[in-house]
Design goal:
With 419 residues, the protein is an all-alpha fold. Helices cover 74% and strands 3% of the residues. The protein has one domain: Growth Hormone, Chain: A (Up-down Bundle), CATH 1.20.1250. Helix 2 packs parallel to helix 5 (104-121) and helix 2 (49-63) runs antiparallel to helix 13 (360-382).
Amino acid sequence: MNTAPEKTWFGQPRGLTILFLTNMWELFSYYGMRTLLVYYMTKQLLFAQEKASFIYGTYTALAYFTPILGGAVADRWLGKRNAVVLGGSIMALGHFAMAFEPLFYVGLATIALGNGLFLPSLPSQINDLYRADDPRRGRAYNVYYVGVNIGGFLAPLVCGTLGEVYGWHYGFGAAGIGMFAGLMIYVFGRGYLPPEPSRSRPAAPVGAQAGNRHAVWWLLLGVGVAATIFRGAYEQIGNTLALWIDTGVDRAWGAFTIPMTWFQSLNPLLVIAMTPLLLAHWRRRADAGRDTSPALRMALGALIVAGAYLLLAAVAGGADGARVGWHWLLAFFVILTIGELYILPTGLGLFAKLAPPRLGATTVASWFLAVFTGSLLAGLVGTLWTKTSHAGFFLLLAGLATLAALLLWRLDRPIRRHS
């Protein structure tokens, strides 16, 4: 672990910029493909909506299940750096395969496999850039999350426009180029990253240490269950919400019709704009001794997301089947993004903070297990889209987010005891 970063970029260790840019381009490829996926299945492959939603949910679930195995492989055998390079290479091949219709399922499976090695190994290197008492370490995950959303912002504009205007396969090909760019940044920037920790098997804990470790794993399981429930609602933004944007939203802006894929850029754009403001707000609260604990911050975020879906329920219910103005969708994304910034980067940082020694990638992978189960839940929930009213469906999503908030609130006190 670096004792003190001698040289910085933007006030942070230089390695954070390498991880930031690598992640940005990897997420460009992921969100670029995800933006097109439901539209490609329903408009090109002519899948029924229920089948397309289930495949979408199953794919995103598998993409976040493979990191459970990949994190263990990285910690025990490959090492984090080798896992990132190998996983990124496999993912690039999968994205290029998506450009060919007969390789549709092969491409999805290949991306999910490469993601298993790549995803837990990249963010688990953040902690190693800082001393344990460095106050920048907790906020580094929010900075890293901005990289996620720069890629997410650019992806619908580039891949979405290419796919919608010129052909779906051009959009998938652009996603593959983005993945390759991120891989090259990582390979040539590895000199700024922390050294690889020992990959020897950690010594078995004894006595009170073993009891504390078991308690931590149970707490992380509880947070993971809450995150699963939350993602059952949150992940609809790329699934059923995308379908509603196509059929239920008036996208006219004067004589111009806003492409449906462009709305997928609103969420990451707002993350980029809002993150500095929230970081400044949290820093002022911390300086005043009124910092919010991670679990309570996450609970508040889930409630804010519930409020965003309540807004859509009210708007859809009042439209009486007519298209609603796109400004309501903008308001929804503003509220949703505030809630997202409270819960998602905080959860990733909490898992990394509580990780046992030499199990960093494995523990971070456990956070992505919640993304797996939540994505699978989102796919199942998405099958209800055509079986209920739009207002009723959005109310269901608000209820899921509220349930997640209640569970996180109950976990706050035991988490603070073990932090």
